[in-house]
């Protein structure tokens, strides 16, 4: 409650005077080439829930009273070697099983509209079952990116950076935005960003060694936040950016979230803002999809239908 009040108090001034980009940082960014892809993937968006938030707090200082629709859901990726989920997001009973685990008033702030589509049903709509999934991969461990694990067998491996897992699970109290129940008993496979710079990002990891699925460093929103750069079979290069931004409007304008909610949910605001600037500096042919950007997610879902 104290953090919520402090975030609210800090918000009005930032709506009038949003944080400005670091021009020296932007000027110093160098875009390294993306790995040559010798394979491609099929990318399918699985929208599971919706909510809305004022544009002025999603992209700090935007002069607009409109509300932005927000999506919650998973992404299904089919690679020649594996079928996997990025951000197994929402379980069917999320309002009763997961959301009550948040401290007040966080659960109220982040609650999606009813009804939601549970992960099992989202897969079934694609004629798939849990047994068809080889592993899952989390861009970060906030509740709305892993609650769907409750509908998958614990034996299905969750791949996540070690620093992210340690941050989420260490200590008596979970960080704001983290619910530990979906992670307990889960088979965890730590991944390390042990590869070279890719595009504007300092570290990477090529999952299959063929350039089709490359993890990149998006730390800031959480300590181990990652993006997933995909070589898609329609000829596009897509970066699934998790919650590094909530809407591509932030990338275009180089705007962080307002203090409320940013001071609650961003682990390191300075690092998160640097990541937004890295996203802004990407080559124009990289399609950035933020997990909660309803329009971007819907466009990808329609393309795959």
Automatic annotation (TrEMBL):
It holds the Pfam family Lactamase_B. It comes from the Bacteria. InterPro entries: MBL_superfamily_lactonases (IPR051013), Metallo-B-lactamas (IPR001279), RibonucZ/Hydroxyglut_hydro (IPR036866). Keywords: Hydrolase, Metal-binding, Zinc. Residues 71-292 form the Metallo-beta-lactamase domain. Gene3D superfamilies: Ribonuclease Z/Hydroxyacylglutathione hydrolase-like. Coiled coil: none annotated. One of its GO terms (molecular function) is hydrolase activity. Its cofactor is Zn(2+). Belongs to the metallo-beta-lactamase superfamily. This is MBL fold metallo-hydrolase. It comes from Nocardia colli. The lineage of its organism: Bacteria, Bacillati, Actinomycetota, Actinomycetes, Mycobacteriales.
């Amino acid at each position: 409650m104290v953090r919520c009040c402090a975030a609210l108090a800090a918000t009005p001034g930032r709506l009038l005077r949003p944080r400005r980009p670091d021009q020296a940082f932007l000027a110093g960014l160098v875009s390294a080439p993306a790995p040559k892809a010798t394979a491609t993937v099929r990318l399918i968006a699985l929208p599971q829930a919706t909510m809305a938030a004022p544009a002025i707090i999603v992209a700090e200082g935007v002069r607009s009273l409109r509300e932005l629709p927000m999506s919650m859901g998973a992404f299904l990726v089919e690679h020649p070697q594996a079928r996997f989920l990025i951000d197994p997001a929402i379980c069917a009973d999320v309002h009763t099983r997961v959301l009550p685990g948040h401290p007040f008033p966080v659960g109220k702030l982040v609650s999606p509209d009813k009804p939601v589509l549970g992960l099992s049903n989202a897969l079934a709509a694609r004629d798939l079952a849990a047994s068809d999934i080889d592993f899952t991969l989390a861009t970060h461990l906030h509740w709305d990116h892993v609650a769907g694990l409750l509908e998958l067998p614990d034996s299905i491996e969750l791949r996540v950076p070690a620093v992210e897992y340690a941050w989420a699970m260490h200590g008596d109290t979970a960080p704001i935005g983290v619910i530990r129940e979906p992670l307990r008993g889960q088979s965890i496979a730590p991944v390390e960003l042990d590869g070279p710079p890719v595009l504007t990002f300092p570290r990477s990891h090529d999952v299959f060694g063929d350039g089709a699925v490359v993890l990149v460093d998006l730390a800031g929103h959480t300590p181990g936040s990652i993006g997933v750069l995909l070589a898609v079979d329609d000829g596009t290069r897509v970066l699934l950016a998790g919650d590094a931004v909530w809407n591509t409007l932030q990338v275009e304008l180089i705007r962080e979230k307002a203090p409320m909610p940013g001071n609650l949910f961003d682990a390191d605001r300075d690092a998160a803002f640097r990541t937004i600037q890295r996203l802004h500096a990407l080559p124009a042919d990289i399609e950035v999809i933020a997990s909660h950007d309803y329009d971007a997610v819907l466009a990808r879902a329609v393309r795959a239908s």
